[in-house]
Design a protein that fits this description.
Elements lengths: L1 H19 L10 E2 L9 E3 L1 H9 L3 H15 L4 E7 L3 E6 L1 H14 L13 E5 L11 H19 L3 E8 L4 H17 L14 H12 L9 H18 L7 E4 L1 H4 L9 H11 L3 E4 L2 E4 L10 E4 L7 H14 L4 E7 L6 H10 L7 E6 L2 E5 L2 E3 L11 H8 L1 H8 L8 E4 H5 L6 H19 L17 H11 L1 H11 L4 H19 L7 H24 L9
Parallel strand pairs: 5-6, 5-11, 6-7, 11-12, 13-15
Antiparallel strand pairs: 1-2, 2-4, 3-4, 8-9, 9-10, 13-14
The structure holds one RNA strand of 77 nucleotides.
Length: about 550
RNA sequence: GCGCCCGUAGCUCAACCGGAUAGAGCGUUUGACUACGAAUCAAAAGGUUAGAGGUUCGACUCCUCUCGGGCGCGCCA
């Protein structure tokens, strides 16, 4: 928030300066956090950029801008000086930090929320794993990223819907049904061979066992329906244990199977619409999507020559449906193995009359598993996959989510199962949670004091450690903005680790419960703000903030 | 063969539109508990940012090429 305000005010100063120098347009400069060895709160590169434009000495330009800053932003800036090639380094007035501290304490969990001015309807679609087996660890990464992103966007005031797209039609469903049926027969004693490409997991046998225990006639059993029912229940439960709850589960059957009064499905209608607008055409008895018109490298089949639709046709109809439900921004979170699909779905969105920006496809790299130094294959059909549930049960939901969000989605993530199972301080989540526990321990201890019935005076918070702490607390909003800009919540893990680091240093140097009542009360307020930010930040990541550990 | 992503400390990874001495955690070494939780802190060691060239005041970041890893290239989902 502070950074944003500084940027705005500097913007008008720079603009004014540009006019004075006869430039027709202003420049876009950056306000940054300087490296740790520099004793300043913010660094501005405007002078260097301007110097280039007006062909002047950057340090001279910097001095001229500093003169304006010192006269126009005296309420904000304590000190401004030139460094290096022409950086303008600013030191904030402490009063600004005190004000921010007060805002955190007053607004609590609402701090940083912009609920009033932003109501855009956003859909975040993620996980969307086929209902053919339990979620594995790769789905977990998508779940953690998607859910946390949704939490961040909600905190920023967007009207967010989390949706799971359910591919409950198609070949794989037949294979699933057949897999269960064959297991059922085998359990009954028939020596039928199993499908080579069938689903070989133990859960298939469990489903068959349940069906046998219900003692129904085999002809009365809808194997597909029963299998999907059990598997979905498992998926939903595993997600719940991972603190992920969807607002909506969208069935592909609803658009590919269900028909309106004219006997048409939504997929039929979407394809007709594309044809009517010249974006789909018939060739070799198949219906093609002219996706090359919007940047794809080849056109794609929507309807095969035998009359069956492809998966893409359903997906077109699905995205059309999303827009029809009033969403103006769609976020799709896909595993990187689907990246070849991005171009064609972006083409679809444009064919449906929306801008390319209305859809954001986020790819996350797959998780590679290591167990005892050996890579673990992860195909759902191999029967050797590692379920999300197994890892969550062993390392805990908090550690698991934090771990997934520790890295940028673009990075391949190596998940060492043996390492993840170690429930020790090696996991950074404990380091962050420990801050909260320590603060609450002090709160409990402070109950024994009778002299704390006085108003805080923030101006007593003037050590280097306290100032660092207040600064870090005040950048919470900047991290929110960064997550929005990059559409990734992972910045919060780094932020919280840094906050924890600063807090622990503060803890060593500044005793909270001291002889001076006024100072004690002020520091109690400071660490109250710390607990608020830790709890908010961890909350955005779907991680708990225990008061005792 | 073509396309997308990645390559940063021993390991796993950060680095906010291109910015200052590239940062954390783990691991290693050495210190610190008779006041709020040592799940902590202080200090040390560890780097030609895969390689080569280019753009510029300035490149981990942008461009070109090479090498290496992952993934994708079907009238499958």
């Amino acid at each position: 928030m502070i950074k944003q305000r500084i940027t705005e005010r500097l913007g008008s100063i720079v603009e004014k300066y540009c006019k004075e120098k006869g430039l027709t347009e202003s420049i876009s400069f950056a306000v940054e956090i300087p490296p740790k060895n520099i004793d300043a709160d913010f660094a501005v590169n405007a002078a260097m950029l301007l110097a280039k434009k007006i062909k002047a000495n950057p340090r001279v330009v910097a001095q001229e801008i500093i003169n304006i800053i010192m006269s126009e932003m005296a309420d904000f800036v304590d000190k401004a000086d030139i460094a290096g090639a022409g950086f303008i380094n600013l030191r904030l007035k402490n009063e600004i930090l005190y004000k921010e501290l007060a805002a955190i304490i007053e607004q609590k969990e609402k701090y940083g929320s912009l609920a009033s001015n932003n109501k855009e309807k956003i859909m975040v679609e993620f996980v969307s794993a086929n209902p053919t087996g339990p979620l594995h660890i790769g789905h977990g990464r998508g779940a953690a990223i998607g859910d946390s992103l949704a939490r961040v966007l909600r905190h920023l005031g967007y009207n967010v819907t989390k949706e799971y797209y359910l591919n409950d039609v198609g070949n794989q469903m037949q294979v699933l049904a057949e897999s269960v049926r064959l297991r059922y027969l085998q359990l009954k004693g028939d020596e039928v061979p199993f499908l080579e490409d069938g689903y070989k997991g133990e859960y298939i046998i469990d489903i068959a066992k349940r069906l046998i225990s219900e003692n129904k006639n085999i002809n009365a059993i809808d194997f597909k329906k029963e299998a999907v029912k059990d598997i979905l229940a498992t998926i939903e439960n595993d997600l719940k244990d991972f603190s992920v709850v969807f607002d909506n589960w969208f069935s592909e059957g609803g658009i590919a199977v269900d028909k309106d009064k004219n006997g048409k499905t939504e997929v039929d209608k979407a394809c007709e619409y594309l044809q009517s607008t010249g974006n789909a055409y018939v060739q070799d008895e198949a219906l093609w999507l002219a996706s090359t018109k919007f940047g794809d490298d080849k056109d794609r089949v929507l309807k095969r020559s035998d009359g069956r639709y492809t998966y893409l046709a359903s997906d077109v109809a699905y995205h059309k449906n999303k827009f029809e439900r009033g969403f103006t921004k769609l976020v799709n979170l896909w595993g990187a193995d689907h990246h070849g699909y991005v171009a064609r779905i972006e083409a679809c969105v444009q064919m449906l009359g929306f801008s390319k920006e209305a859809l954001k496809v986020l790819l996350y790299q797959l998780v590679s598993l290591v167990r005892n130094g050996k890579p673990v294959p992860m195909s759902t059909r191999s029967g050797e996959f590692v379920p999300l549930k197994e890892v969550v049960d062993e390392v805990g939901k908090d550690a698991c989510r934090f771990f997934f969000l520790l890295r940028a989605p673009d990075s391949q993530l190596e998940f060492d199962l043996e390492l993840a199972k170690k429930q020790s301080g090696e996991n950074p989540v404990f380091y962050v949670q420990y801050v909260n526990a320590r603060c609450h321990s002090i709160f409990r201890e402070s109950q024994n004091r009778t002299d704390l019935n006085t108003e805080p005076d923030f101006s007593l918070l003037n050590t280097k450690e306290e100032r660092e702490l207040m600064k870090q607390l005040s950048t919470f909003c900047d991290i929110l903005a960064l997550c929005e800009k990059t559409m990734s919540p992972h910045h919060f893990t780094a932020y919280l680790i840094e906050l924890a680091d600063i807090y622990h240093k503060f803890y060593e140097k500044c005793r909270v419960l001291g002889d001076d009542s006024k100072l004690t009360v002020s520091r109690l307020k400071l660490i109250e703000a710390v607990t608020i930010i830790i709890k908010n930040g961890l909350g955005l990541l779907g991680v708990s903030a225990p008061e005792k550990m």
